[in-house]
Design a protein that fits this description.
127 residues; mainly beta; Jelly Rolls; six-stranded antiparallel β-sheet; four-stranded antiparallel β-sheet; 12 strands; RmlC_Cupin_sf; Cupin domain-containing protein
Amino acid sequence: MDTARSLTPTTATFIPKDSNSLEQIGALEGVERPDGLAARILVAGRDMVLIEVHKAKGNVDQRHTHDDHESIALLLSGRMEIEIDGESFVANAGDSWIHYPGVPHSSVALEDSVHLEIKSPPRKTWV
């Protein structure tokens, strides 16, 4: 396990939204990113992390995999094109998706979008 990717569990049991700042993402899985991608860790537990992800219209996550965790996401606002293991979907607010460890996936923000993502085990995949 890459301990640099591990997250320390949150010590508080209640976390107001503004407790954690929105962080601009410079690289995702080691690949440099253009502007328009930001994330906020809302809460980290021993076995999972809840993240709020903001993507500007046109933002592209190139096809990649995560070998050390699975992710479940819920689109809160906007529209995104999601590709998971070669299958494409257009996600609207309220839609959700999952990708398991080692499964290739990518996305394009068709509109400014915000989604919640749960990663298990908890991993930070960006800098």
